[in-house]
Amino acid sequence: MMQLLSVTFLSLASKVEEIEIPTILDLQVGESRFVFEAKTIQKMELIVLST
Length: 51
Prior knowledge:
The protein is an all-alpha fold. The chain has one domain. The protein is built from 3 helices and no strands. Helix 1 crosses helix 3 (about 40-50).
């Protein structure tokens, strides 16, 4: 759950700050044990933004 939240926050921050938004896979490189689908991250973004 924490990895999903981390990727979600990175995605939201990049959408606010960057001119060119990195792909979802680019945000998940490194030692992550899970690779989340874009649809899952978008759902989590909506949850974060609604709270």
